[in-house]
Specification:
two-stranded antiparallel sheet; alpha+beta; single chain
Length: 180
């Protein structure tokens, strides 16, 4: 089987035995960069015009999907990133108690170490103000709470397709609702 690659040259489109062709290996490596199939196909050398078709075709191949899954698993192991760890970090950023910082005398960066870990993780920066006072910058809670609420299904984006006059809106507006 052959298809477009680069300027339209014919290439081997894959084997059924689970072994990746060089172009499939390159696609997998490029896909793992940003998880954008279209851009991965273009960076692999497929034409801009055929990129979407190539992504659909490549992602339908079991050996390509398996290689992507293996690459993602290897990255997760390497970085020790997991869904639980991300949720845990978001929880620290969303639920820290700023009063804990106020209860500790803070005269410099070394004093940050005396704070509880969940509060330390919410600190995104520090500096001294014009009067020479040590200040810490905390992560905004709203962003973290929003991400957690969306993950837990508490917030959903809804597309409104009709305007106030009852006619279709182009493009449709998006708004967020609280799900109870």
């Amino acid at each position: 089987m052959t298809g477009e690659f680069g300027g339209g040259a014919a290439v081997d489109q894959g084997k059924v035995d689970g072994v990746l062709t060089p172009s499939q290996q390159r696609f997998v490596a490029e896909y793992l960069v940003d998880l954008n199939g279209r851009q991965a196909a273009i960076r692999t050398g497929y034409s801009v015009h055929s990129a979407e078709r190539q992504v659909t075709r490549l992602m339908a191949l079991p050996q390509v999907r398996a290689a992507i899954a293996a690459g993602q698993a290897a990255r997760a192991a390497r970085t020790e990133a997991s869904q639980d760890r991300v949720i845990s970090e978001l929880s620290c950023l969303a639920f820290y108690d700023a009063g804990v910082i106020g209860a500790h005398p803070m005269e410099g960066p070394a004093d940050i170490a005396g704070l509880p870990e969940d509060v330390r993780r919410a600190i995104v920066g520090w500096s001294w103000d014009k009067a020479g006072n040590f200040t810490v910058k905390l992560s905004p809670k709203t962003t973290s709470l929003d991400l957690l609420a969306r993950h837990l299904g508490m917030l959903k984006d809804v597309r409104q397709h009709l305007g106030k006059d009852g006619r279709p809106v182009d493009p449709p507006a998006t708004y967020t609702v609280l799900v109870r």
